[in-house]
Design goal:
The chain has helices at 8-17, 28-31, 38-52, 72-84, 101-111, 128-139, 154-161, 217-230, 269-272, 296-307, 313-322, 357-368, 394-408; strands spanning 59-60, 122-125, 145-149, 168-169, 174-175, 178-182, 201-205, 233-237, 262-267, 280-283, 338-341, 347-351, 370-371, 373-374, 385-389. The chain is of the alpha/beta class and 409 residues long. The strands form four sheets. It has a seven-stranded mixed beta sheet with strand order 2-10-9-8-7-3-6, with helices on both faces. A four-stranded antiparallel beta sheet has the order 11-12-15-14. Helix 6 crosses helix 10. The chain is globular and about 55 Å long. The chain starts with 7 loop residues before the first helix and ends with a helix. Mean pLDDT is 89; it is low at 1-13 and 327-336. The structure holds pyridoxal-5'-phosphate (PLP). Pyridoxal-5'-phosphate (PLP) is lined by residues 64, 127-129, 152, 205, 209, 237, 239, 267, 269, 275, 280.
C-alpha cells in the first residue's frame, strides 16, 4: 500500500476528481485522523528530491525496513512446506486459528523461558501491526489509552479509528482523551508515572521506536506496579526485543506479576527479516481479567477466530526454523550530535535542539541525499529529533555517516 499509493496530495484529491459519489457516509473516526500517514509524506518528499536530483545516490535510512537476506535454513523450510502442499501427503488447508502448536511451544520455550508463559497463551499472527488493530477491536471505543510520546504511530491511529480519542488539537498536535506520556532525553525516555493519570490501557514499546531506548527491569517493575495499582492493562510491544544487547528485559513477563496486567505483541519482522514474509505473535496470559473477572484470553481467541483465521502455514514453517538450530541470531555510530538509542534497537534518535524536525529532514535530504524520518511523525515529543534507521547495507550506512559528518561538522 505504501508503495502503490501516489503522493499524498494526489490521494487527497481523488474524491474531488471522481465523477460518482455513493451515499455512504464516511466513518467519522477516519475523518478524525491526521492527514497523511507519516511514511507516504516522506515518500512524496523523497520522490520530489529524486526528480530534482536525478544523479544523486539516494540512501534510505527512513522507514524501518530490513535489508539483509534471510538465512537459507529458514527459506528452505518455507520452500519445503510450499512444495509439500503440491502432494497428497503434505497438503494442509486451514490450520488452527491460534497458530501451529509446535511454533507456539517453540516461541514459549525459546523466547519466554522462565517467565511462565505457555504455548497456549501465544497467538501466532501475520504481524504485530495487525495485532495492534485486533487488540483495539477487542478493547472497543469505551476505554481510555495512554501512549509514550513519541511513539510508533499505529497505537494512536488505531485508537482514533476505533473511536477512543477525542478531536485532534491542532495547536498541541495531541488528541483529546489520549494520555501522552512524555518520554524524552530529560527523563531518560521513561515516563514520570507519578504525574501520569490513570487510563484503562497503557501502550508501551521497549526497545522503543523511535527513540531506540530500552526500559530497565526497575522501570518495567514500576510500570507493572503502576498498572496493578490503577487496575490498568499494559499492551507491551517487544518488536525490537532481539536487538537488546544489555541486561534490559526482553519481555514484560520477566517482571513478576506482569501476567495479571499485560499483553505482549511481538514480531519476526525485525529480528528475522520477515517484514515482507509477515509473522508475529501476541501473548495473552490466562491470569489477565477484565473488571468483571472474565478472562481476556477468551475474548482475544474469539477475535482471532472471527477476524483472522490463522497465519500462513508456509510462513509458520519459516518461523519455526528461525527458532530452531542455527537460525537464531543481529549498528550504527554517533555523529558527534547528541544521539540516543542504537544499542538496544536498530534506530538512533538524534537531537537537533530548537529545530523543527521536518526542516531538519528536508535539510538532510537536500544536502546529503539521505532519507530519514522527522521525529514529529511520532508525536509532539519528537519535534526536535530525527530518527535514523540502522537497517541497511553496511556500505550504505558508512556512506550516509560520511555525508552527514560533512554536513554537520
Ligand atoms: N511495532 C513496532 C514498534 C514497530 O516499529 C513496527 C514496525 O515498524 C511494528 C510493530 C510492526 O511490526 P510487523 O511487521 O510485525 O507488523
Amino acid at each position: 500500500l505504501k508503495r502503490n499509493l501516489g503522493p499524498v496530495s494526489m490521494q487527497q484529491n481523488v474524491h474531488v476528481m471522481s465523477g460518482h459519489w455513493t451515499r455512504v457516509p464516511r466513518n467519522v473516526n477516519m475523518d478524525g485522523l491526521r492527514r497523511g500517514y507519516l511514511f507516504p509524506e516522506i515518500s512524496v518528499r523523497e520522490n520530489e528530491h529524486a526528480r530534482r536530483n536525478p544523479d544523486a545516490r539516494l540512501i534510505r535510512l527512513g522507514i524501518g525496513d530490513t535489508t539483509q537476506p534471510i538465512p537459507d535454513t529458514i527459506t528452505a523450510a518455507m520452500a519445503e512446506h510450499a512444495y509439500a502442499l503440491s502432494t497428497t501427503r503434505g497438503y494442509r488447508g486451514y490450520g488452527a486459528e491460534q497458530g501451529d502448536m509446535e511454533l507456539r511451544m517453540a516461541i514459549a520455550e525459546t523466547l519466554y523461558r522462565g517467565t511462565g508463559v505457555k504455548g497456549s497463551e501465544i497467538f501466532v499472527s501475520d504481524g504485530a501491526q495487525c495485532d495492534i488493530s485486533r487488540l483495539q477491536m477487542l478493547l472497543g471505543s469505551d476505554v481510555k489509552v495512554a501512549v509514550q510520546d513519541p511513539s510508533f504511530p499505529a497505537y494512536i491511529d488505531t485508537s482514533v479509528i476505533v473511536g477512543q480519542s477525542g478531536k485532534l488539537e491542532e495547536k498541541t498536535g495531541k488528541y483529546n482523551n489520549i494520555v501522552y506520556m512524555n518520554c524524552g532525553a530529560e527523563n531518560n525516555f521513561f515516563p514520570d508515572l507519578s504525574a501520569t493519570p490513570r487510563t484503562d490501557v497503557i501502550f508501551f514499546c521497549s526497545p522503543n521506536n523511535p527513540t531506540g531506548s530500552a526500559a530497565s527491569w526497575k522501570q518495567l517493575k514500576q510500570l507493572v506496579d503502576f498498572a496493578k495499582t490503577n487496575g490498568s492493562m499494559i499492551v507491551y510491544d517487544s518488536a525490537y526485543a532481539a536487538y537488546i544487547s544489555d541486561e534490559s528485559p526482553r519481555s514484560i513477563f520477566e517482571i513478576p506479576g506482569a501476567k495479571e496486567v499485560a499483553i505482549e505483541i511481538s514480531s519476526f519482522s525485525k529480528f528475522a527479516g520477515f517484514t515482507g514474509v509477515r509473522l508475529g505473535w501476541t501473548v495473552v496470559p490466562e491470569e489477565l481479567k477484565y473488571a468483571n473477572g472474565f478472562p481476556v484470553i477468551e475474548d482475544f481467541n474469539r477475535i482471532v477466530c472471527t477476524c483472522f483465521n490463522g497465519a500462513s502455514n508456509i510462513v509458520q514453517a519459516g518461523g519455526l526454523a528461525c527458532l530452531t538450530g542455527d537460525g537464531y541470531q543481529a549498528t550504527f555510530a554517533s555523529l558527534g550530535l547528541k544521539v540516543y538509542g542504537g544499542e538496544n534497537a536498530p534506530y538512533v534518535w538524534v537531537h537537533f535542539p530548537g529545530t523543527c524536525s521536518w526542516n531538519v529532514f528536508d535539510q538532510i535530504l537536500e544536502k546529503t541525499h539521505v532519507v530519514t524520518v522527522p521525529g514529529r511523525g511520532f508525536g509532539p515529543g519528537g519535534e526536535e529529533y530525527i530518527r535514523v534507521s540502522a537497517f541497511g547495507h553496511r556500505e550504505n550506512i558508512m556512506e550516509a555517516s560520511l555525508r552527514m559528518k560533512k554536513l554537520f561538522n
